[in-house]
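Dear support,

I submitted the protein below through the web form. The confirmation email said the job was done, but the results page showed an empty box. After a refresh the structure appeared. I'm attaching both so you can tell me whether what I see now is the final result or a partial one.
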Amino acid sequence: MVKKKKSTFREYAEAIIVALVLALFIRTFLVQAFKIPSGSMEPTLEIGDHILVSKFIYGIKIPFTSIHLFPLEKPKRGEVIVFIYPLDPSKDFIKRVVAVEGDTVRIVNKKLYINGLEVPDSHAVYKEDTLFSAEVQKRDNFGPVSVPKGDLFVLGDNRDRSLDSRFWGFVPLADVRGKAFIIYWSWDSQGMTVRWSRIGHLIH
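What the results page shows now:
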């Protein structure tokens, strides 16, 4: 009995379907690409950077639920994460974790204190000399507040120009999409140039 040969169209269709399923699986469970649209994480991440985010390191999320399976680790202080923006679930935000559940956070004249001790904050950049009191706004003087169980406190590296936990509160662990780990492409839209030196840069 001779096996009937598949048509060229069918072979291409099956190859495309397999590729789409594989891409969907990778995007849903393993790695996802994001583009940086704002300067809140400068200079670590610049506008036009394209990054990859590991989705499985904090656990594989079951679609349409808040359940994460088989987490390798929990987000730690200093890691850069992508998460669902608490005030608008249709948006994703990227910030740096500065405190985890049980930590007490305080900011005094732009200096970061965790559990009563000033901590090294080498990623932070301040572009303005002005100091605001907590009564005026919470940018430069904040807290103290304790991070609830199951939550994170995040800040942008560009501290004077970042909308973060100082203004809208904590990030639930269940809303974390993953850990940013590498810049795979970078485009300066103003200069219309590729930032070759940033491509392949690991995110710390």
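Response: this is the final, complete result; the empty box was a page-load delay. The helical segments are 8-30, 165-168.
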